[in-house]
Design a protein that fits this description.
Blueprint (H helix, E strand, L loop, with lengths): L1 H19 L17 E2 L8 H7 L6 H4 L2 H4 L1 H8 L6 E5 L5 H10 L4 E7 H6 L6 H4 L10 E6 L10 E7 L15 H11 E12 L18 H10 L3 E6 L24 E7 L5 H15 L9 H10 L3 H4 L4
Parallel strand pairs: 1-7, 2-3, 2-5, 3-4, 5-6
Antiparallel strand pairs: 6-8, 7-8
Helix pairs in contact: 2-6, 9-11, 11-12
Length: about 325
Amino acid sequence: MFSIKICVQVLFALLGICTALELCTAPAAANSVAAVPAAVVPAAQVPAEVAAAIADAARPPEEVARDGERRTAEALAFAGVGPGDRVADFMSGGAYFTRLFSRIVGDRGHVYAFLPEEQLTNCAASETAGTRALAGDAHYANITVLRASVDHFSAPEPLDLIWTSLNFHDLYDSFMGPANVPRVVASMFTALKPGGALVIIDHVAEPGSGVRDTESLHRIDPETIISTVRAAGFVLEAQSDLLRNVADHHDRVVFDPAIRGRTDQVVLKFIKPRESAARWHASLIVRQRGSDSRASPCTSPVCDKRRAIALTASAVTRNEN
């Protein structure tokens, strides 16, 4: 009994020293988004279906080799994807995450791998070869490859999750049009079920830089992502610091060998509100149609009435690109 008391006293003493020296807390990530709840997923809390998907023997070895740097298990656990879900992998590229989603959602779920026509036309075929190879692959029978203009993203059924990794900044670049980004995000909002999630991972740019570095460094200011997505009606639920890197000073192109695979990255999870989502988004579509000459006109009496009001705000809703 006496020895137990001594051990407890020693333990508290060590904890006190550790706290005083700030050895028990992880340093805060640089340039973290203010007023956004951070989330960390301990390894013990990674769902079994995520672990099983990562262990799938059918995965290409070169993709397995990247699991560590991408913190794949923790990122997927943070997204909350599970069996039976309907998931869209937006700009799925080499299908790294597409394959994992297929194993996680299982036979009761489905995965839609979206390839924008702009990417297929303007980029090397190797960038999308992984996704295109999944068509007809029996091991991934629950995957459907979708192709459309990026501004017209949609899915055949309401989705539980839309995931886009290291691609959001591309929407602002010349090879993508550039895209009408508010319209793209609005299409994501439409595609999700109420309560569905949009998870965005991207390379972090210098604070306050907006979209200045999207084409040159392939980086974007997280505040730009947040403001753009919130404007479409989404709610920012959480961010994860698992891919933050304080050693990245945001001044190198992400393909620089000195930083490639270890860039400072933001991980954001947005939710489509369950209440009044449909009513809010119907109004948003009307406003966008009033300011976007490419959209098909709405001819119903309701739209005519709303358009007269929306035109006064067209300067606010117009895509700056």
